[in-house]
Design goal:
2,3-Dihydroxybiphenyl 1,2-Dioxygenase, domain 1, 2 domains, eight-stranded mixed beta sheet, globular
Length: 364
Amino acid sequence: MNDDFLPIQGTDHIEFYVGNAKQSALYYQYAFGYELVAYAGPETGVKDKASYVLKQDKIRLVLTTALQEESPIAVHVSKHGDGVKVLALWVEDATKSYEETTKRGAKSIHEPFTIEDEHGKVTMASIQTYGETIHTFVERTNYHGPFLPGFIEKKGTGQITSTGLKYIDHCVGNVGWGEMNTWVDFYEKVMGFNLLVTFDDNDISTDYTALMSKVVSNGNGYIKFPINEPAEGKKKSQIEEYIDFYNGAGVQHIAIATDDIVHTVTELRKRGVEFLYVPENYYDDLLDRVGHIDEDLQPLKDLNILVDRDDEGYLLQIFTRPVQDRPTVFYEIIQRKGAKSFGKGNFKALFEAIEREQELRGNL
């Protein structure tokens, strides 16, 4: 695409609204190996909320909690449980990004505004996407503070070691019946993204449930958003279960890249992160399906890591169980060895794993 009217440098941060940010921050530090780097709250002059900023390599998570009952953050958590509110995009010009998208039909959430402190200034603006999720454009060209003006540097006191997580590979959104194409159109027309790949219910189904998915990507490929909707099946699909418990559309999972998935998953499991279970017979004919891989098969089998190949290489992936009590947000850990795809060959095994969990919850 020659004229990229919305050049994006990458994911700036992902902000969760949670019931208890202090405790969530500890979970992400000890279980996932994030480092606490910044904080804003009553001690910094913010009266209605507290936010903790966590970092690992290029990933920044912000965990925000309400301090008052009537806060919109408290309302969000009451309705959705802990979930993603902001998918923030790092741009060179937040004002232009806002103007280009709103003139193409994006609903404005926050007009461009600039905040500054002794570390420099940051300009931000926000637009609406699916459900109550928003995109915030962040322009931080010459900003050198720990996160944003208003945040102070804050370090965790415990012994935290990285698990080898590198950057956000993609973020997946779940939307309601018949809404997928509406949001794909939004990303194509309003944000200038391209349709990368389409999966229908023949690609992603089991004997019981199915879904449809389309993946959109920005011009340079730094941002990839698969959008899922339910498809007709004999029983309730994982997308329907998500929407029932999240009370609407929202971010289903965040895929995080690693350069050494065996090390990363070994560390995560050691620290108590739970993953979906895939039966051992998945590995019986794995090498026949995917061909030669550099890794030994036994550690992959021991850790329950899945493998898939496309025309450009292969990938290794694994999915956590939901990271809160509602069966909503979870994580994917992915290592790409050339592959640009999303693990189509693993969809059936993954769905059956998710269905086993749904059945345990009584929601299939």
